[in-house]
Amino acid sequence: MRELKDIIHNGKNMLEWLEINKTQDANLRDADLRCANMSGANLSGANLRYANLRYANLRDANLSGNYSEVLSVFSAGQHQGIATCTHIAIGCERHTHQEWRDKYQSIGEKHKYTSEQIERYRAWIFSLDWIIK
Q: How many CA atoms lie within 13 A of 63 on its CB side?
């Protein structure tokens, strides 16, 4: 795990950004948070759009207010997947649950996913019934 003091984003380390923004409503857009230890962080309302959260430790982190409340995060290789009650974002694609169910194959092919990656994302997408509003 990378410690927040070692992660640089726009010239400041993550501890500095979180202090500036008091973590709540922090602007972490495009931040490289791979393998970051963010357990217990208050990230409510934080802008995590395009942030790379691959392998990040978000255990007990407060993610309320992000993408209408992030309820599931998934990584199966190429891009991070984030699901809310209404939408799923995988990489740069953000669609409703139903749109993903209808188009996961063509979206995966468009982004040159392997058939194995498409199957892993499909399995995750179809496992999200418990959060759909």
A: 22
